[in-house]
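Slide 14.
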Amino acid sequence: MSMEIIEAFTAPRRWWRGFAGWLHERMPKGLYARALLIVILPIVLLQSAVAYVYMERHWEAITDRLSASVARDVAAIADIYSSFPQDKSHEILSRIAILDLNMQATVLEKQALPVPAPKPFFSLLDHTLTRELKRRLKYPFWINTADPGNVVEIRVALDDATLHILTSRTQAYATNSYIFFIWTTVASVVIIAIATSFLRNQVRPILRLAKAAEEFGKGRDAPFRPTGAREVRQAGAAFVEMKRRVERAIEQRTTMLNGVSHDLRTIITRFKLSLALMGQGNEAAEMRKDVEEMERIVEAYLAFARGDGGETPASTDIGAILRDLQADTQRLGVEARLEIAGNPVVVARPAAVRRLFANLVGNAQRYGKRIDVAMSNDGKTLNVTIDDDGPGIPVDRLEDAFRPFYRLDESRNQDHGNSGLGLAIARDIARAHGGEISLCRSPLGGLRASVTLPV
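Slide 15: predicted structure.
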């Protein structure tokens, strides 16, 4: 019993949550559409309710008066028939009904009235006309307001005959519903037009701010000036100030790294000069290898720290870069296949993107004997996959491969002639362009590197 009570209380809550979830899925997701809905829906509903209540009372008052008038006319015709001699009543009734009352009256032989039909619950005419006829007629009657010809039929059971009357619905009922719909429709269109023009001007600065932030996140410079409402201008000014600080930090870092790079290269050049003067002994050869290794590591560290942030974005042909890397791979004796579908041109920093794909292809060259590269463009993103048939990386270590200076202990480790920064630099470049890199198992049995770049 207790479970039934609990179920009775929880069922409405589950139903409400399900309805709320269904409604949430179908509600507009954009700020512009939601703002329009918030502004327009309450106004239209309130206006419809007010107009309906007003028009309903107006129609009820008019219908009451018209129905009372028809009831008086019907009662008058019945009184005329009862008061005048029977041999002249038919002619008098027809003349009065047609000429003065705009009705059609006929006297039939005495007969039983039809069975009353169920009255519609929302039929104002049925209820009002029945009430008025009961007030003014002393005879039994029957009415039919459902005639498809827009005619109201009334039958009155007199003492020795049946009075049959036909009249138009417009004489007893005010059918002005179209006025309500026209008024509501016109007012709603005016409200929507005003709200749309107003909200468009309010949302446009937000869209420009979002576009500028997106372009800046992709490494592109989009001109932006804060406009719009006070809060939007404040957000835009904060974005502009943040952009300046980031650009200033990048400029300072680039300047510092250029100085560090110059000083380190100067020292390494001195080492090379000293080794050249030492001759060709075994010790000198070992020291040259160490200096060359030091130079590669320093260049890798500087490239990772610098991130090629000072390069200007431009239209870059990714297909041409991949074809050059394919040719370089084939010269090394590694089988390389390339498939290009769609437009290969994107706006990016050319040297940085070349380094990105060179790092990924170079990583595949070290561990595989076959490389398959595929590029596609769906109009929104450019997708590149690089597959190899090497030993691969365990699934639980795929994300660790992107960590700077991280060494893998398995057969595919990053400690063979490199600094362990290739994948980290590649991901850093991809994210600087608003893209991403992911690793997974390759159909060739090795590693697949998937790159996405916004078009």
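Speaker note: The chain has ten helices and eleven strands.
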